[in-house]
What we know:
This protein is of the alpha+beta class. Helices cover 32% and strands 19% of the residues. A 3-stranded antiparallel sheet has the order 2-1-3.
Amino acid sequence: MSRCLACSQENCGYRRECDCDCHPVEWYVYMVECQGGSIYTGIPTNVVARVKAHNTGKGAKYTRGRAPVVLKWCQHVGSKSAATKREREIKRLSRAGKLSLIYS
């Protein structure tokens, strides 16, 4: 068992869900390009770890048969609710709209 250096709670999951407010979780929205050219959008707290999970078959079901994936775009949004809202907005975009966002 380890204690968080910020809040002294055991196994608080620093940078993950935690009952204290001393180190809020930071959320991101990201887009990866899958093998075959499709674009997947998601929300993690750790983008690098999430992309690695996709590439090892442990990510979203959609990407399991479409690896390797390549990170194309990422945006810090802060809270989980803001990330979920932004993810919905992006998922409603056409492919052209997503590509425009990636290359802007």
